[in-house]
Amino acid sequence: MMLLIGKIFAAILLPPGLFIAIIIVTALLGKKRWSKAMTFILVSAGLLMYLLSTVMGSNLLLKPLENAYSPITGRIDARGIVVLGGGYVENSPEYGGAGALSKDSEKRAIYGLELSLEYPLPLIFSGGAPYDSSQKGSEAEAAGRLWRRLGLAQDRMILETESKDTRGNARSVEKVAGRDPSSSSPPPCTCRDPSLPSRRWESQ
């Protein structure tokens, strides 16, 4: 019981709960001077901000999207596996100051690696350097280091290091999809579902 109470107080007194609590308290204290509509809007905004800051709130938005696409199982008609970047830590002391994948991006990279072990297909990671951190390397290069440490051969992976966002991921993957790491002239292809963490792509 004490643990639960401690968790509740921590959620209220630590950001973002602290700032949201201030909004709600301010609205309640000022309700005599403000209209009921203004008080309602402030309290509702505070509660909505808090909901969206919690795991439960994020799941309400993410689960319908995630559940719309079932995991890849059985035989697939594909020529490669595409993993899109999902975050980058620019300076990681454990890697000598080099960049590393964020937890979400690393999860995608590991799942892509698992698929590549199940299906003997080329594995492509799409993710460039965020902002002006090109001197620290790119997200794709960080994924390549992770895959090599986990035993994936260099000739099984293609690292796309130029894209900055999801639109760039889709365009860059379209250029390199179907390309062998040693090839210089990729055939045309279609990149499917570029907003998903890991999807298959097929040639036209």
Could you explain how this protein is built, in words?
The chain has about 200 residues and is an alpha/beta fold. It has 2 domains: about 1-55; about 80-204, Rossmann fold (3-Layer(aba) Sandwich). About 45% of the residues lie in helices and about 10% in strands. The protein is built from 7 helices and 7 strands, in the order ααααβββαβαβαββ. It has a 5-stranded mixed sheet with strand order 5-4-1-7-6, sandwiched between helices. Strand 6 and strand 7 form a beta hairpin. Helix 2 runs antiparallel to helix 3 (about 35-50). The longest helix has 17 residues, at about 35-50. The protein is elongated and about 70 Å long. The termini are far apart. Residues about 180-204 have low confidence and may be disordered.
Helix-strand blueprint:
Blueprint (H helix, E strand, L loop, with lengths): L1 H12 L3 H13 L6 H17 L2 H13 L12 E5 L3 E2 L10 E2 L1 H16 L4 E4 L12 H11 L7 E4 L5 H11 L12 E2 L7 E6 L1
Parallel strand pairs: 1-4, 4-5
Antiparallel strand pairs: 1-7, 2-3, 6-7
Helix pairs in contact: 1-2, 2-3
- State the total count of DSSP E strands: 7
> How many separate domains make up the residues?
2
SSE succession: HHHHEEEHEHEHEE
Please give the count of helices: 7
Unreliable spans are 180-204
The CATH C-level class name of the largest domain = Alpha Beta
Largest sheet, if any?
5 strands, mixed
CATH topology title of the largest domain? Rossmann fold
CATH architecture of the largest domain: 3-Layer(aba) Sandwich
